Thioredoxin (Neorhodopirellula lusitana), 123 residues
Amino acid sequence: METLEHELSGNHLSVVHFWATWNNVDKAMDAVLAAVRAEFDQEITFLCMDTDRREFWDFIRACRVLNLPALGFFRGCSHIDTLVGLQERDVLTRKFRDWIDQQEKHGEPDDAPESLSWIYRGG
């Protein structure tokens, strides 16, 4: 979890792909993400999380992951949104552009109630 905290720290956008080895739809989501990743690699950090690992379950619940695949969007440690289900490339492209535009307008992340910092303290 410390690695995730480090990756989400700072003032940048991150996408966490929540997946499981038993879910075949996750492979399709990987393909969609691979297609858009190159376009947004400079503005967005792409991460992934195996939802079968028990130590991540509190974090996964906090991100409102109700089904797989899912993508969690973060500005620093502040949770912005979660998309559940397989997404098409054009949908992700629009979403990513919107978040980048919002990032440019807002700058530093707020101490919003969506902050997930409490997750890391619970041990």
Q: What stands out?
A: DSSP finds five helices and four strands in the chain.
